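Researcher: Good morning. I'm working through a list of sequences from a screen, and I'd like to move beyond sequence-only analysis. For each chain I'm collecting a predicted structure so we can compare shapes side by side. This is the next one on the list. No need for commentary yet; just the structure.
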Amino acid sequence: MNSFLLINKAAGISSFGVIHQLRKITGIRKIGHAGTLDPFATGLLICATGQYTRLLKYAEAQSKSYEATLLLGRKSSTGDPEGEIVAEQEPNIKPEDLPELKAKVLALRELQVPLYSAIKLEGKRAYQYAREGKTPEMPVRKVEIYDFELLGDLQDNSLRYRVTVSKGTYIRALSEYIADILGTVGMTTALERTAIGRLDISRSWSLSELEHDWQKAVCPVQDILTALPTMVLSSEQAQHFLHGRKFSLPQDLADGSELALLFQEKLLGIGTCKAGYILPSLVLDGEIAQ
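Model: Good morning. Structure tokens for this chain:
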């Protein structure tokens, strides 16, 4: 079965651990996820089964919204509660510093990727170097901060904030950046992903709620592919697409544009526009959960 599932991940389990549990609950072996959540983090995790795993990159590309707690004055090796404390500094936050924080965060354009991350450096995961005691030079990644809001005042050296960010933005790194702006060190002690694109956490389900009926977590594929224009194919066009043949594009779209192609309300796959034609770039088959 091809489907997308909206999962509310609990703290203490890795994103792969969620996949492992879903395989037992659904009986489906081929399952993947978009946008890894660290074990300490909670919230919305989009999972896919069957051939829809090939569409996860479209979910991955969407903006992400989070609510986070930043502890000021302490820094851990991982940027979260799972690491060792490597620096301590008594924070001296002035009340007048906080109103200026939003503008500075929204102006941010790049962040260094944390050492404890899953990106590959010369074919090896960064966290593997960290566990070996090595500190390779980490890349700087372009980011966009679409929205930022403090949730209350500073309490016990902790700040809570809500943020919406572009793909690939590490909230652990953002918290450290905010602490640096405030003249101290910091670490993320709590993190919840509340939305991915237009999908809100209120639509997600915990693993325990799915043990007897996992299909209630199924999300319509059109809700995942909101960034793509859609086109409903005729029977003739559908046959061309399914057999890997190009066909005429009835509208003027730029070369390289992608379209979600449907036939009788079922997603057949993704087409790419080129020189007035639609070329098959991803063709799906099998049973589809709508």
